[in-house]
Amino acid sequence: MNTNIIHLDQNFVNQIKDEIKPHWGELGWVTYKRTYARWLPNKNRSENWDETVKRVIEGNINLDPRLKDHPSEEVIAELTNEAQKLFRLIYGLGATPSGRNLWISGTDYQKRTGDSLNNCWFAAIRPQAYGDSHIVPAYLGPDKVAVSMPFSFLFDQLMKGGGVGFSVVKDNIKQIPFVDQKIDLTVVIDKHSKSHDASIKVGATDKDEWEKSVQDSDDYIYYRLPDTREGWILANARLIDMHFNDTNPEGKKKLVLDITDIRPYGAKIHGFGGTASGPMPLVEMFFDINNVINAKAGQKLSAVDATDICNLIGKTVVAGNVRRSAELALGSNDDQDFIKMKQDKDKLYHHRWASNNSVAIDSKFDNYNPIADGILHNGEPGVVNLELSRNYGRIADGYQAGIDDNVEGTNPCGEISLANGEPCNLFEVFPFIAEKQGWDVKEAFTLATRFAKRVTFSHYDWEISRQIIQKNRRIGISMSGIQDWILSKWGHRVVIGWEDAKDPETGKDIKKPIYDPEIVKTFDGLYKAVVKADEDYSQELNCKPSIKHTTVKPSGTVAKLAGVSEGMHFHYAGYLIQRIRFQASDPLLPALKECGYYTEPDIYTPNTICVEFPIKAANADNENFASAGTVSIGEQFATQAFLQTYWSDNAVSCTVTFQDEESKQIAPLLHQYRHTIKSTSLLPYYGGSLKQAPKEPIDKNKYEEKSALITDDVEKIFMKQNDDQKDLELVDQSDCAGSACPIK
Q1: CA-to-CA distance for 511 and 222, rounded, in angstroms?
Q2: Pick from 288, 283, 313: nearest CA to 205
Q3: Which terminal CB of the chain, N or C, has fewer other CB atoms within 10 Å?
Q4: Which residues are catalytic?
Q5: Cα–Cα distance between 485 and 623 in angstroms, integer?
């Protein structure tokens, strides 16, 4: 759709700006300005919050399929009214779409690819056909099954800024055929390229020298990469597929990749944004991936090999500066090589850091001690219970055989169980803030549901994605600031006690949580409101209701906008110093310094400045307040189980933090909640002991002392310096940044 039919009138926008003050958290406006405010070339400045919200809502509301062909005045009036309600809700920060939508919705890039609106994806690593997709290698027909396809899908989505979960369980890996031959790879570059010398240093060959040495032009496949995302992917696909006779129609064993046309380091990337890395990381990736596959000539690739290829791709994408590469590798729970692959420190530091690794289990699995031991030593693996995801929505709604039978894995944060090619589709409500802003929370969740539903009508680049999205219409309506809301509204946490019980299968003694019945009733009612909103809107649109509807995402950056606790997690501490890193040239820095925020050079990264923000959690002085440093491991498990039982029919993203003395409880608790929790991960609580730690707990006196040094409002001071604005560069924020994501 090239034109917007529904517009938000500027007079309406101005009226709302007069009526409503956004509920910025202590880090909110700064986080927004450096993460989601797009550059406006015609105004020589970045967006203001009202402009971002207007762009995002117009981009979304116009996805309603009823607008395609001569919509009635009634439909236009209905959607205009809905757009105005959404503007009130989001502008006031009672709710927000995902960070992906805040950045991309309403841009030309969204119109080119609907993939850009989705945070994360999932791919099964097994040979597949490309189908009717925007990328199909010329040497393959669309229906030809190829080993390269899932790697190409992963590469594409990572380069569009999405995270990717991928499955290397044994059932997938055994479908990859034997590697038929080694491939002799040469990467060439012309002397005229600005990247010539740097590329030669990492293994490329001067093109003139190569041409002089060539004896037989029929001896090799030659591919000159265009300066596009697709060019990178197609070159990698050709490299992978040439190792297998079935996808090497020419029968050649030599491949020459010409990188001359790839833009140099520092050049602007139009569309998604950011700056180019140059071809050097790509050259290294080609050789590394070729070495992995060549080493298995005459054998089959393993789960470790497949994970290495995905990690090498992820490492290359990270080198592209602004993009972050979140990967989750899901392996079989009895694959010891996969489970131990990060013990190879050289490969860990080279590329295996690029994914967090989990194992697939079912409810019969009971060998949790090795998993607990791994978590204790290196924070991995996490666990993903595919059986629960396939046969349950909310646990409270009971066993529903095959309700979500195509599920094979999860996104990197673990809150959405996904089928092959399927994405997350997220929106979150902050009930704590929405109620402060005068909203009926059920109405806020209704608006959220309709927003996410429209995203499923985007144009998707890959056939596997289009098919599964149309089949499932999966949405993930989340809530954040859960701990703030519960403590403010009910005066205590959701777990109000424990009762002695026995595991019905093993007879072992367990502590069973007791939940506040009023909180249970409220969350159950909100879930039903989301389901009804989806049913009503699906009827209007004449499409299937969503297969699943609700989740709890980790939130991270988005939660910082409104200053609420992240997802289901407890605040890191009641009072803390939050450190955020900025490029030394970032135009926000002078305003921060003038306002009295403490700044110093980052000790880890050159040309980067570390800024300290004193933070007070909501309810920090409440006697029932608990933080990640004080709440027990048992209560965290019980809280995740509560949300999986009464709220989320997808899954709940949770990283349980534990103290040293709690480590023996890990295996018993994983076993106790095996019929309730769909995915989880655990990390030790460090308490900010590192120098310049992102979060450092402090006491109330130090918080007040630090706060007293802040003498002005950053937004106000920044606006005074507006003439000097430049395009803002992102350093270390992501939609999932925080204690919870990615799932380990």
Answers
A1: 65
A2: 283
A3: N
A4: 413, 415
A5: 15
Element (H, E) at 744: none
Q: What is the pLDDT of residue 273?
A: 54
Q: Give alpha helix (H) positions in 22-98.
A: 28-35, 49-61, 73-91
Peptide bond into 381 cis (omega under 30): yes
Number of CB atoms found within 10 A of residue 15's CB = 12
CB 134 within 8 A of CB 230: yes
The number of beta carbons lying within 10 Å of the beta carbon of residue 382 is: 26
Structure tokens, 371: 């998993």
Residue 162 buriedness (CB in 10 A; 0-12 / 13-18 / 19+): buried
Three-state DSSP class for residue 324: coil
Grouping H, G, I as helix, E, B as strand and the rest as coil, residue 570 is coil
Is residue 730's pLDDT more than 60?
no
Mean pLDDT of 112-121: 91
Sign for the CA dihedral angle at 495, 498, 501, 507 comes to positive
Q: What gap in Å lies between CA 383 and CA 331, rounded to an integer?
A: 10
Residue 336: both structure tokens together:
């010891």
Strand boundaries in 147-290, DSSP class E = 163-167, 184-189, 205-206, 221-224, 254-258
Region 357-376: mean pLDDT is 93
Is there a contact between 188 and 206 (Cβ–Cβ < 8 Å)? Answer: yes
Tell me the C-alpha distance between 686 and 19, whole Å: 43
Strand partners, 39: 46
- How far apart CA 92 and CA 96 sit, in angstroms, is 9
Six-digit token pair at 284? Answer: 């290294």
In this structure, are residues 280 and 195 in contact, taking their beta carbons and an 8 Å threshold?
A: yes
Q: Which residues contact 532 (CB under 8 A, 6 or more apart)?
A: none
| Cβ atoms of 659 and 635 closer than 8 Å | no
* 283 closest CA partner among 258, 309, 263, 311: 258
Q: Sorting pLDDT into bands at 50, 70 and 90, what band is 136?
A: very high
Query: Rounded to whole angstroms, how far apart are CA atoms 265 and 326?
Result: 23
DSSP 354: G
pLDDT of residue 111: 87
Q: Where are the alpha helices (DSSP H) in 379-510?
A: 386-391, 431-436, 441-455, 463-472, 482-490
CA gap 152, 406 in Å, rounded = 21
Question: How many residues does this entry show for the chain?
Answer: 744
What are the DSSP E strand ranges found in 394-469?
Answer: 409-410, 417-418, 426-429
**690 pLDDT band (50/70/90 cuts)?**
confident
Strands (E), 337-475: 356-361, 382-385, 409-410, 417-418, 426-429
Residue 627 to residues 38, 513, 623, 656, Cα–Cα distance (Å): 34, 19, 12, 12
Identify the residue whose tokens are 């989601």. 36
Question: 224: Cβ–Cβ under 8 A, 6 or more apart, which residues?
Answer: 258, 260, 261
Q: Mean pLDDT throughout 118-135?
A: 96
- Compute the distance between CA of residue 526 and CA of residue 646 in angstroms, rounded to an integer: 9
Residue 408, C-beta contacts closer than 8 angstroms, at least 6 positions apart: 122, 124, 167, 386, 418, 419, 420
Three-class DSSP category at 509: strand
Type and span of the H or E element at 267: none
Largest CA distance in the chain: 81
Q: List phi, psi (to 5°) of 22.
A: -60, 140
- In sequence order, the 6+-apart residues with CB closer than 8 A to the CB of 124 are 150, 166, 167, 172, 408, 409, 420
d(CA 723, CA 557): 27
- Closest-CA residue to 407 (of 468, 336, 493): 468
Tell me how many degrees the CA angle 354-652-402 measures, rounded to the nearest 5: 100
Inter-CA distances, 236 with 159, 301, 313, 353, Å: 14, 17, 9, 21
Give tens-digit pLDDT for 600-646.
999 988 888 999 999 999 999 999 999 999 999 999 999 999 999 99
Position 143 scores a pLDDT of 97
Token duo for residue 624: 């029932």
